[in-house]
Amino acid sequence: MAWLYGGERRLGVVGWSVLLSVLIAALLNTLAASWFTALEERVGDWIWHSSARQSEERRVIIVDIDERSLAEVGAWPWSRATQAKLIQALAGAGVREQIFDVVFADPQPDDAILAQAIQKHRPVLSQIFALDKNAPTSGKPAAPLDWTSCPSPFEQAQGYIANAGSVLASPSPANPLVVGHITPRVASDGVLRHVPAIVCWENRAYPALALATLMQATGEKNLSIERGGWWEAPWMLTGSQQMVGKIPLDERGDLRIPWRLHPHSFISLSAADVLNGRMHQSLPADILSGAWVLVGSSAFGLKDSIATPFSGVEAGVLAHAELMAALVDNNTPYTPRIAPYLEVLAALCGAAVLVLLLKWRRLRFPAPLLPLAALGWSGLLVLLHALLLVSTGVWIAWVNAVLFTVLLGASMGILAHITSRWDRDRLYSHLSSYLPAPVAAALALQSPSGAIKARIEQVSVLFADIRNFSAYCETRPPEETAAVLHSFFSVATRIVEEQGGIIESFQGDAVFAVWNSGNAPNHSLHALQAAINLQVAMDDVLPDPAPAGLEPLSLGIGVETGPAMAGSFGPANRRTHMVMGRTVTIASRLVEMTADLAHPILVGEGLAGHIGGAGLESMGTFLLDGMRTPHHIYAYPLVRAPHIY
Fold first, then answer.
1. Tens of pLDDT along 299-334?
2. C-alpha of 617 from chain center
3. What is the reported pTM?
4. For residues 84 and 166, what is the distance between their CA atoms, to the nearest angstrom?
5. Are strands 185-186 and 155-156 parallel, antiparallel or unpaired?
6. 3-class DSSP state for residue 99?
7. Closest by alpha carbon to 165, among 99, 111, 110, 101?
8. What angle do CA 122, 125, 126 make, to 5 degrees?
9. Can you tell me whether residue 33 is helix, strand or coil?
10. Three-class secondary structure of residue 459 per DSSP
């Protein structure tokens, strides 16, 4: 786990998290780029749907060829004379612009009547191109822009359905007809979000219906294309006479449809009512005067339906109405060229927030909560995206920034948690080499405290001390005495732990071990067995024979059972753990008497009582040093290392 830590040659938690997040984000973008794009667009749909205005829109009014119109006027297609009558009725109502989301493709006998009405009232007509596959051609494309060629980024069409030449007959060179295409750009999920601003056919450029209407309304004769600035869209359409404001296009040359207006905000009149001179009673009689009137169809049989952020089935005319309202307001949504850098900046800011939460110790922010912090930052980015889109029409992509931030938060949280656990385990390992393992485990999970934390338990205690070791240390090299002591401590630890005990401490050349019911139910027997095994094992540990001039080293062991207080004591900045009480004092005094009584293992009356005195030899009653009450002492006559239980 050392690779997670910082240093001159190591990345640390933050470095590894950033690297992993970048790699995973790149992999996911490679495998699921279209899915992420669809997610971003669907969130945009939800923003449009949630924020759409429902106030009445009177500048663009829809005349709907609906089911009632088909029932009253007749099945579609209507005669050209009926269409001409509709144009004349709209002109008589004082509309400013007539826009037909209808293509008069097939020649009919009465085309001359319609052509005459078109020449007189100058409506904006429609034509449609096929972009994604070869398609048959019908009619005659009309009204291209006055461009010598069709430049990048606009697409070449693979076919078209245009108005019949007989409908467009005898155009006036001084006042040519205006025709716009109604070619959709349907997304993979079926929702209409973009419309190509310009479509090319045979190297001529044909504008979209909304653009053609704007040009006719403003008197603009031509448009020009230029590269946008950093804070502008990738491409900008402008009018040659500056009568049309800058119109932003994306890298493909598409207009993003602004679904700012709820479908209910558009006034929709039945075409049958317009033809018959009827108006809805709740509407003013002059409702059409000065308005842009868009003629389209919502009738199911005419198959002009689209999916929008509001519904899976809406009239196709609604998309053109939304675009026209945005062009009138000069507020078409767009993605600025600097947007990718802003997305990177958002990701970096999210990373900075997460690093601050992780590294700034004063915050005490838990590492496992970093993924939640990343989700919070991601939600903030989406909210900022929504505010920009609704208030200014600026579309800033956010999926990659959110993806990186979430991955980074998850990576940092997981790796920081892993390193924290590893630190804690390492700390526990160190603590347990100096303290009893249960005490070390408890301390690793607790905050420092200056309070007394102790309890009284029934325990068995073992003291083992090397006799004559001080003189041995005085005359022998330190390396030799350290080796003897190390061997003694190692063997004692192994034997005590084999019997379920805990080494409480090493005190100079002595070992202090404790058993209780938690780690050894028959702790008295286990403590005595450990004393026997330890005494036998010393034959291979203590030097034999003793160096010249020195008393031989030997082991004295005292064992006792009884109540003792175990816990932590001292101020918060300097604590100690100890087991103390009468039982501990007796065991330590028994060690001192092993030489006087010439027995290596002495047992207190408490332990003798627990095991019933079996195998023990009474040595009499003694007043132990520093104690006020005499104590009965027993010896274990050691011949070999038997198992006493």
1. 877 788 899 999 988 999 999 999 999 999 999 999
2. 73
3. 0.72
4. 14
5. unpaired
6. strand
7. 111
8. 170
9. helix
10. strand
